[in-house]
Amino acid sequence: MAAAREDQKTRKPAVKLSSEARLIAESFSGKKLSPIVVSGVLQLFEGLLIAFSGVLVHILLTAATTGFNSLIVLPTTGAAFVAVMLIYSGDGYSMQSLKSTVYGIVRVALAWSTVVAVGTFMAWMIGKLDNNIWEWLTLWYVSVLFALVFLRFVVSKVVHGWTVSGKLERRIAIVGGGTPVEDVIASIESDKESDIKICGVFDDRSDDRSPVDVGGYKKLGTVTDLVEFARISKLDLLVVTLPITAERRVLEMLQRLWVLPIDIRLAAHTNKLRFRPRSYSYLGAMPVLPIFDKPIADWDSVLKRCFDLVFTLLAIVLLFPIMIATAIAIKLESKGPVIFKQIRDGFNNEGIMVYKFRSLYHDQADIKAAKSVTKNDPRVTRVGAFIRRTSIDELPQLFNVLVGSLSLVGPRPHVQNSQTNEKLWEEVVDGYMARHRVKPGITGWAQINGWRGEVNTPEKLEARIDHDLYYIENWSLLFDLKILFLTPFRLFNQEGAY
């Protein structure tokens, strides 16, 4: 009975989604592709295609007789850059253009034809348009045109398939009820080419202003339910339809929602306030005001992942002898496995398996972390005390980074149901869950500033979370590099690490 009471005390209170809401959320739980990244990759590929085609045509036509002219790289690269810019400015990289065969082909054909026409005119004006140049330009133009047309035909089929399968859709939920929500739904669904998928409507109210059915969608729960729904369904965006003049209600709602790793927008059509046009972004034809942006999204997430892979592989190569020596020392001192495994809170509050070198005696291992390790803790082995102070026990987490469950730099992954003074940490610090808006890391801003080790007071926890949130809001690759560089030097500060 005592064990049961202890388990009940430490278990996180689960949000009880309705069966319908949970079923809908789970239907959207598959992985997605970023439209911005897909568009960016195509821009890069088309630019390289244009540039290399010009060089290849030069090699085939003239290099055999007159030799290769390395200066040909300059006009081909310049033309490729200008062509991609023209396609971009003509909306040729939007999802609508990528899904539509004709729409996309027309735009790339016009942009490429314009570039070649201008280039030909400039060559004629400066007297460089001889037979060789004319032949090269003609073959380059025709070959690239056919290549771009074929590429866009293939891309349209692939993107259409990804859209149908849900890999390229933007999943949104709407907060509010009544006429404002109906207007938002009507505006979104009026665009038949939109990649937006409305997943559900949520509102705390249950009166006439917020009926159960609105705009063809059933209300799936309250704002509290929405937090759990968003985590399961991998939502991209929340649209809040409350008027900005309802300040208290908006702020109270945002306080519950900002912990989610998604974009949050305020529907502008529900407000009488009018801002400058540049203040708005748009969902189809509907203007919205940005409230919160998802941190480390799109290309930022790609760059951070590349950063992780490069430095993690380098670290494994350099530190592998230390890891082997540590494993041998642990095995020689005490019985039990070398690696300690523990489930911790990861990105989007999902549980992840984290690996560490075992630092406690195996028969006293504390998988649930019911009791924090303290100074001179008898459960810690001699080898364990050393590797904990120097953070060598964290090195196996490099393999967590390789598989993608951790990042090199980020908020440290905390043990599930962690407590201070018999209170769960999310109950101690407001906004605690916001640290799960990014992947956790092996090292972080809090750790290099001395906030590591035992957390036995609310003040220590608050300091950790403040540093974690500062990191999330101010992330950059240079910031990651700074933290990574400082980590080995700050490890010599052993205060608080037992």
In which order are the strands of the major sheet placed? 3-4-2-1-5-6-8-7
Give the total of domains.
3
What would you call the shape?
flat
Overall strand count: 14
Distance between the termini: 33 Å
| Overall radius of gyration | 28 Å
Main sheet, how many strands, which sense, barrel?
Answer: 8 strands, mixed
Portion of residues in beta strands equals 5-15%
- Assign the structural class, choosing from mainly alpha, mainly beta, alpha/beta, alpha+beta, or little secondary structure: alpha/beta
Mean pLDDT: 83
Determine the fraction of residues in helical runs and give it as a percent range.
40-55%
Number of helices: 17
Low-confidence stretches: 1-13
Q: How is this structure best described in words?
A:
By secondary structure, the protein is α/β, with parallel strands linked by helices. It folds into three domains: 12-31 and 169-292, NAD(P)-binding Rossmann-like Domain (Rossmann fold, 3-Layer(aba) Sandwich); 35-165, no CATH class; 299-490, no CATH class. The protein contains 17 helices and 14 strands. It has helices spanning 2-10, 19-27, 35-66, 73-89, 95-99, 101-125, 131-165, 179-189, 223-233, 247-257, 299-333, 382-389, 397-403, 425-428, 445-448, 458-473, 477-490; strands at residues 170-175, 196-202, 213-214, 217-221, 237-240, 263-267, 281-283, 286-292, 339-345, 351-357, 407-409, 419-420, 423-424, 441-443. An eight-stranded mixed β-sheet has the order 3-4-2-1-5-6-8-7. The chain starts with a helix and ends in an 8-residue tail after the last helix. Mean pLDDT is 83; it is low at 1-13.
